Amino acid sequence: MRQRTEGNFEGSRETLSALIDYCPDYAEGYNQRAFSAYLAQDYPAALIDLDRAIAITPNHVAAIAGRGLTLLGLGRDEEAQAALREAVALNPWLAERALIIGPIEQDI
Fold first, then answer.
1. Average pLDDT by consecutive 10-residue portion of the chain (108 residues)?
2. Which helix (H) or strand (E) holds 75?
3. Count of H helices and E strands in the chain?
4. How far is CA 32 from CA 39, 41, 50, 53, 96, in A?
5. CA neighbours within 13 Å on the CB side: how many for 61?
6. Which end of the chain is less crowded, N or C, counting CB atoms within 10 A of the terminal residue's CB?
7. Among the listed residues 81, 74, 75, the one whose alpha carbon sits nearest the alpha carbon of residue 108
8. Taking CA 39 as the corner, what is the angle to CA 38 and CA 45, rounded to the nearest 5 degrees?
9. How far apart are CA 99 and CA 20, in angstroms?
10. What is the pTM for the complete model shown?
């Protein structure tokens, strides 16, 4: 995380890859590597890691919200809105709530 904070996204991804190799069922490793990829604007790589994190932990709010942001970066707005709504349904206090277009359902 220090590498990412310092702007060393490639180094951060390498370090997190080592973590994932060591503990491949740890969803947060994929989520953090996805965040580094997202910050480097490597949205396709971020999406792969986010999907893996969600497969391991289906209600991983940060990964679902990150998926929405990544899909926005890819211009896949309809899918992004669905992911953002899913994340906000799990945690109504997410800042990403502001990115939802249109009315928010009563159940959120």
1. 88 94 97 96 98 98 98 97 97 95 70
2. none
3. 6, 0
4. 11, 14, 9, 9, 18
5. 11
6. N
7. 81
8. 30
9. 30
10. 0.91
